[in-house]
Amino acid sequence: MPRSTSFDGRYGRMFRSLPPFAPTDAALTKLADSMADKPAGAAGDNPDIPSGYTYLGQFVDHDITFDPVSSLDRINDPDALNTFRTPRFDLDCLYGRGPADSPYLYDQEDPASLLVGRNTGKEDEPVDLPRNQQGRALIGDPRNDVHFIVSQLHLAFIRFHNAVVNHLRFEVEPSALFDEARRVVTWHYQWIVMHDFLARLVGPDLLSEVLVTNPRTGKAKAALSFFTWRTQPFIPVEFSAATYRFGHSMVRDQYRINDTLEVLPILTDIRVANRLQHLGGFRRLPKGWSVQWKHLYPVGDITPQLSRRMDTKLAEPMRKLPPLIDNARRSLGLLNMLRGRALQLPSGQSVAQAMGTTMPDADLRLTGEAPLWFYVLREAEVVNEGRRLGPTGGRIVAEVLVGLLKGDPSSFLRQQPAWTPDLPAAQSGRFTMSDLIRFAGVA
After folding, report:
1. Is the confidence at residue 29, as pLDDT, over 90?
2. Residue 73 clears pLDDT 60, i.e. is over it
3. Is the pLDDT of residue 83 over 60?
4. Which of 33-47, 149-163, 177-191, 316-330 is the least confident region?
5. CA distance 374 to 321
6. CA 16, CA 237: separation in Å to the nearest integer?
7. How confident is the model at residue 71 (pLDDT cuts 50, 70, 90)?
8. Are 312 and 373 in contact (CB under 8 A)?
9. What burial class does residue 231 get, using C-beta atoms within 10 Å of its C-beta: 0-12 exposed, 13-18 middle, 19+ buried?
10. Are strands 9-12 and 235-236 parallel, antiparallel or unpaired?
11. Which residues are 236's β-sheet partners?
12. Is the pTM of this model over 0.90?
């Protein structure tokens, strides 16, 4: 199976001809200050999307993008920026550069398997990511240890890979076991991104317009109108710096992660708070803190916590970030909009006009041009009550995610366009995050 010849990619623009939108600091600050969330409760919950998908979205983002270079304080040229992840759903955040180049990720006693860790090596300690003596995770992307939910999700993918290795162990030659397990894991992950995650975000009707399946042959193909490239896919900044950041509005202020712990905040000021009072990461998993996924995905006998709606409201921890994330303790919304300005993104209205999805500002409760990120959230809020993305944001997200699959010569869409999942699942020929969690043995 073809593999990428490099370990990074490029950023670029979807709408090169549109003028940049450059609001003042004061205007952006005022807009960010208006994004206070309503009190936690059912009114702000999204009944269609369990809260685990918020963090699957973060995991997917870490799989395809990493920009440690651009600055909020100066103009950045996207064409000069690298993404230090391949623009493919290839799980390089999980596999690194493979067993030969990233041996610290792999179990040397079973080379086809990924390494899991225990804090002390004792059997009663919780299973954790492998870590060094200072507690830093030994994984392909350090951002997947930023809080316990995403670190435990990364661990679930490690254990999913290992379960697939065991599933294939007596069917595949030992020399081919790792490569075949990686293919199976990656293709099932790609299916989840398309048919479980993206379908929830944009709705089945829009997804079927962008990922078209022939009813006679079962073959799928991408139908893209706005995301195109010359030689290989890139990451559009309209996607990475604006539209895909819709997930920030889905974050709850606090979560229950298992049956025994109290509800805990996702972020807090860890310089003054007890480290056992929040879900912040970059540390060993305390005993009794393993995530029970029934609280985040529909895998158990309870209704999981729901994500917040995709709207112009941010949970309180997102509106005053901890000092270790932002020394000035600014709002994540403000940082998003400053990033969009630094990358010279067009306004939401000009993008919608270029796509033919424009709506009157009065209907969107806007009094002038809005940053693309804010526009996409307001559109989802007005058009779909925040339960899924609107026509502008949904089309951009769908075209980019499907386009990255189309541009990957090793994806199931390119290799076997009629392929459907073949691992055990609740519904034959389908595969969801709930099925992955069950197969991995972490439900």
Report:
1. yes
2. no
3. no
4. 33-47
5. 19
6. 11
7. low
8. no
9. exposed
10. parallel
11. 12
12. yes
Round to whole Å and give the CA distance between 367 and 378.
Answer: 12
pLDDT confidence band for 366 (50 / 70 / 90): very high
The 3 state secondary structure assigned to the chain is: CCCCCCCCEEEECCCCCCCCCCCCHHHHHHHHHCCECCCCCHHHEEEEEECHHHHHHHHHHHHHCCCCCCCCCCCCCHHHCEECCCCCCCCHHHHCCCCCCCHHHECCCCCCCECCEECCCCCCCCEECCECCCCCECCCCHHHHCEHHHHHHHHHHHHHHHHHHHHHCCCCCHHHHHHHHHHHHHHHHHHHHHHHHHHHHHCHHHHHHHEEECCCCCCEEECCCCCCCCCCCCEEHHHHCCHHHHHHHHCCCEECCCCCCCCEECCCCCCCCCCCCCCECCCCCCCCCCCCHHHCCCCCCCCCCEEECCCCCECHHHHCCCCCCCCCCCCHHHHHHHHHHHCCCCEHHHHHHHHCCCCCCCCCCCCCCCEHHHHHHHHHHHHHCCCCCCHHHHHHHHHHHHHHHHCCCCCHHHHCCCCCCCCCCCCCCCCCHHHHHHHHCCC
How many residues comprise the chain? 443
Closest by CA to 349, choosing from 323, 328, 379, 306, is: 379
Six token digits for residue 74? 């100066």
CA distance 316 to 36: 7
The average pLDDT across 321-350 equals 94
In the prediction, which pLDDT does 4 show? 40
Neighbours of 323 (CB within 10 A): 12
What's the pLDDT at 85? 58
User: CA-to-CA distance for 187 and 195, rounded, in angstroms?
Assistant: 12
Tokens 């901890």 map to which residue? Answer: 322
Cβ distance 393 to 243 under 8 Å?
Answer: yes
Domain 9-440 class in CATH? mainly alpha
Beta-carbon neighbour count of residue 359 at 10 Å?
Answer: 18
Written as six digits, the tokens of 345 are: 């993104």
Q: Residue 325 carries which side chain, given as an amino acid letter?
A: I
**Over 126-164, what HEC string results?**
CEECCECCCCCECCCCHHHHCEHHHHHHHHHHHHHHHHH
* Residue owning tokens 């596999």: 95
CB atoms within 10 A of CB 6: 8
Integer Cα distance of 399 and 412 in angstroms: 17
Q: How far apart are CA 156 and CA 443, in angstroms?
A: 9
